[in-house]
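EI: anyone free to look at a 188-residue chain?
SC: sure, send it
EI:
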Amino acid sequence: MKRRRPAISDEDRRLWDLVRRSATPLRPEATPEPVPPPAEAPERRAAPPAPVAPPPAPKRAPPVPTVAALDHRTRMRLSRGTVAIDARIDLHGMTQDAAYRRLHRFLETARADGARMVLVITGKGGPAEPGSHGTGRGVLRRAVPEWLRSPAYTPLVSGYHSAGPRHGGEGALYVRLRGSTRPRRTAD
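SC: here you go
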């Protein structure tokens, strides 16, 4: 879109001609002719209203970290026992509310203690009761992965996966914690 220049008043033109005549040109051969004043004064139009500034953009919250699945190599090393599990928690027999709070506290404490890999035992749950349409049993087994992906847990957890057979199989999860909050000690 082409911008229109504002109209110059007669007084501004006379002032500009005086300045141009008093200035010494850098290249004397390229002296422009003075601009003659317009024959008629142009009609003055009302100035358009000043544009209204848009409201400031809302501040964006920092991106929420994502929780990924553990890579194949890490899963294999965990299931073989070549990677140490730093801590474990058993949520068997707890209600969802109690398990949620206890798991969160456990992960915070483990992370603060410098743990990198923990085992969360949820239990496999039994077969669904007749007429329940697949619900009711194994509630924690289904709920814990959802919790680990929730915004409350993502600052603590960087990845998880079902445990290998030696650690409980489908009734347990390997959980990798984000970097420790405790500063690492250096060798003196």
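EI: Strands lie at 68-69, 87-90, 117-121, 157-162, 172-177.
SC: 👍
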